[in-house]
Design brief:
mainly alpha, 4 helices, 60% helix, globular
């Protein structure tokens, strides 16, 4: 399954979250934790749902969109065309894992 099978709004939300997670803000670490929990929660840690309270409303909406996509697709990012190793180590360093 390639990422072009992802709905346009889901793909846009995911790509915005990846860019935010790679940034250098307090919200970046919350978004990074969210994405890492999808890529490998066992090794990268989980996501605290109350972190949704600590991000802007637009970011939280993107996280909800991606969460729904994950629930619908039942796939890891790499099967949707996103290779986790591209960002995992960088995201982990941002979240001090």
């Amino acid at each position: 399954m390639a990422n072009e099978t992802i709905a346009a709004d889901q793909k846009a939300a995911l790509e915005r979250l990846i860019q935010i997670a790679l940034g250098n803000t307090g919200q970046s670490s919350k978004v990074a934790n969210f994405l890492l929990a999808w890529w490998n929660a066992e090794e990268c840690g989980g996501f605290d749902l109350t972190d949704l309270w600590r991000v802007d409303t637009a970011i939280a909406a993107d996280m909800v969109t991606v969460f729904c996509m994950v629930a619908e697709r039942n796939h890891y990012p790499d099967t949707l065309g996103y290779r986790s190793e591209e960002h995992t180590s960088e995201l982990q360093s941002l979240t001090n894992l």
